[in-house]
Amino acid sequence: MSERAVPESVAPVRRSAVERRILAAALRLFAERGFDGTSVQGIVDAAEVTKGALYHYFDSKHDLLYEIHHSLIARQLADLGTVLDRGLPPREALRAALTGLIVSTAEHIDEAKVFTREMHRLDDARMRSVREDRRRYHLTFRTLVERGRREGAFGRGTPADTVTIVALGMVNQMPAWYRADGPKSAERLAEEVADFVLAGLG
Description:
single chain, mainly alpha, Arc Repressor Mutant, subunit A, Tetracycline Repressor, domain 2, 0% strand, elongated, disordered N terminus, KstR2_TetR_C, transcription cis-regulatory region binding, DNA-binding, transcription regulation
């Protein structure tokens, strides 16, 4: 598998100012109140648009939820692709990918929170799409670990798949424990986690 695997289907989408306001309002309310606790009228009021404007761009609340998920995974895949395009040695590339993912997740913690808590609300087709994109990220990250093993940058202890599950699993759980006002900045936390993962790789 090629390490550079960011398909056009998940490329970040350019949106109008009205779309961005609607999505920002939906994201904030989903994070604060949950999907079930948020009404279309509440989103319209928070975005200061009409229902007609909302339905011009989005079919339903479920459509908004999917777009939030899509935005998150598209950004993550694009960021990973940017790291791989730099042609860094495996150890530096893995550090850059992991620290970038942690900092980005911290900066977009509400998206990550909604993603983790509400993903089960998606219909079957959209759930498959999200899972395929997440699997693509997982496989690309794992391939980077495997490349480091082949080139002698990492030891041959813990299997690459286990390293990937542990590293990405920790990031996926950030909404449960990360606080922007905590004792460590996102950047410092990212470097410490990368140190931990790389130390485990030898």
